[in-house]
Design a protein that fits this description.
CATH superfamily: Aconitase, domain 4
Radius of gyration: 18 Å
Order of helices and strands: EEHHEHEHEHEEEHHH
Structural class: alpha/beta
Number of domains: 1
Strand order of the largest sheet: 1-6-7-8
CATH topology: Aconitase, domain 4
Strand content: 5-15%
Shape: globular
Largest sheet: 4 strands, antiparallel
Number of strands: 8
Number of helices: 8
Helix content: 25-40%
């Protein structure tokens, strides 16, 4: 899993509440067993018209946000079914961080396992942040996990809290297997004693 300490990148405001996992990646695109290629189906129904052409009004289709690595969403992002493919589609597209007031519980667990940083901020702060990003014409913002701070192009900073265990996992780039292997000696001693 890729480490996350600090990142400066374009952020895309997505002022939609209750974005469920089917909206993130529709079920018909979940046939793959690997993560590669799922990003092209991210927000499929929002990004593309029925004929396959891009919808110019969707934020990730705008030139300034095509390479966005940060998404500033609204409450209850990632609700719905437990599909891990939703996180895979976001990360395959290039999204490394989602900022929102709240997240679906299972989505949050899948994000942690796959190196996607989720930052919870109050509704008003997220709304203000989306406005500031648009006013700054999508200038890059910095997300500093080590300092637990978001820095805007204007110089303003927003502090955030994150679970210390989640922070460590992301900063060290540890997936479930890596965390288990850290205890390999203890596991070997246990097995030898059996």
């Amino acid at each position: 899993m890729q480490k996350f300490t600090r990142m400066k990148a374009a952020a895309a405001p997505l002022p939609l509440a209750n974005v469920d996992t089917d909206m993130i990646i529709p079920a018909q695109y979940m046939k793959a067993l690997t993560r590669a290629g799922l990003g092209k189906h991210l927000f499929r129904e929002l990004r593309f018209a029925h004929d396959g052409s891009e919808r110019g009004d969707f934020i990730l289709n705008r030139p300034a946000c095509r390479e966005a690595k940060i998404l500033v969403a609204d409450r209850n992002f990632g609700c719905g079914s437990s599909r891990e493919h939703a996180v895979w589609a976001l990360t395959d597209f290039g999204i490394r961080c989602v900022i929102a007031p709240s997240f679906g519980d299972i989505f949050a667990g899948n994000a942690r396992k796959n190196g996607l940083l989720l930052i919870r901020l109050p509704d008003e702060t997220c709304a203000w942040l989306r406005e500031e990003i648009a006013l700054a014409q999508y200038a890059p913002i910095e997300v500093d996990l080590e300092a637990q701070q978001i820095r805007l192009a204007s110089g303003e900073a927003i502090d955030f809290e994150i679970d210390p265990g989640d922070r460590r996992i992301l900063m060290e780039g540890l997936d479930d297997i890596d965390r288990t292997l850290r205890h390999a000696d203890a596991i070997a001693r246990f097995e030898a004693a059996l």
